[in-house]
Write a structure and sequence with these properties.
Layout lengths: L3 H28 L14 H18 L9 H11 L3 H12 L2 H16 L1 H11 L2 H12 L3 H30 L5 E2 L5 H23 L9 H27 L21 H24 L1 H8 L3 H13 L1 H8 L3 H30 L9 H18 L3 E2 L1 H21 L11
Antiparallel strand pairs: 1-2
Helix pairs in contact: 3-4, 4-11, 4-12, 5-6, 5-11, 6-10, 7-8, 7-11, 7-15, 8-13, 8-14, 8-15, 8-16, 8-17, 9-10, 9-15, 9-16, 10-15, 13-17, 14-15, 16-17
Length: 423
Amino acid sequence: MISMEERIYLENEGISASRCNRTEVHAFEFETFDLRPNENNASSSIFKRIWISLPRSIYVVLFKSRVNMLLPFGPIAILVHHLSEKQGWVYFLSSVGLVPLPELLGVGVEQLAYYTGPSVGGLLDAMFCNITELIIPIYALKYGMVRVVQHFLLGSTLSKLLLVLGSAFFTRGTLDNRRAQVFTEKTILVNTGMWLMAFMAIMFPTLLHSTNTEAYFGKSELSLSRFNSFIMLVTYMSYLFYQLKFHQKQNPIDEGVSHEENTPQMTHLEAIGCLFILTVWVSILSRYLVNAIEGASNSMKVSKAFITVILLPLAENACAINFAIRNMLDKTLGVVVVSSTHILMFVLPLCVLLGWIMGKPMDMNFELFEIAVLFITVVMGAFMMQDGTLNYFKGLILIFCYIIAVSLLAIVYKEYPFSEISL
């Protein structure tokens, strides 16, 4: 039997030990403060949360990636526009300033996905990481540049399905050329079907106009384009529901990126604020970029087709090419597959309907030569991915196909009418 004095002594010792343990736990939790709300940090002061999260958020957004060194080129482009008439420099500087923004938007979406879940995070990724491909055509459409919109979307599809995909295959295949490597992408066949559907919707108005078989000359292809656009948007929304319902993605953690205990590095409000600020900045730079196309064509003495088909999409896909060079295959495939579907099935029909609202005759009447280029691009991209394997030779073929396509469009293709614009 234990005496009363011994029992009191042991109870006091237990209380002291529990207090020590609680002190150690609190100290440990302060060092690894989880930004997600839970019972441990719900009562933390606002000052502590800001003190811990805000500096880390600024570091993650502005200083973590080396490509962010290009961010100052955006403000410099605006200064050059207002202080000089050198539109070629404005175009170049604004293009370079836009290069890191898709990756920064991806960071914001990644952090917000920790709070919304992987399914909603996948939808946010499709929306924000392709925001430049949406804002630039809308600005061009606002100024009546229908051919600029068509050529930009065509060039974006070319660069993604041929150049970006080819760079990824060539880089990964070169690093390990002893055997064919396998990648897993469950939605490739579904997206391939979406690409072919988009091609069909674009091909019919073009053939209708080229064969002079429309019932109402100059109007039938426009009406057909608007009808097809509505069907394509309904299909795209069904596709998003399909992805959300049956193909839920894992938390968006990129290859080669270290995460501390798989916890968010921003609060949800900081992630939302980051996405809002970056979207506004993309919109501002895109306006100056579109405005400088005409002056850049004259100053650089190159065709506008060369700028809108090659240079402009190349600037928007620089981060995707960077992912391919850094051997981040999963991220690159996501950019190629999801972004290509987003451009063909969402951005293009949305521009047609927005043009209808704005009173701009935006249609899907591409030239026959452009339709042929688009068809070969879709077929080559789908064919190279359909077996789920990659090697450096596949990448080399895709890169050479891109060079052939853009050289034809930029060198021997006829010029198209271009309207004057000003800010």
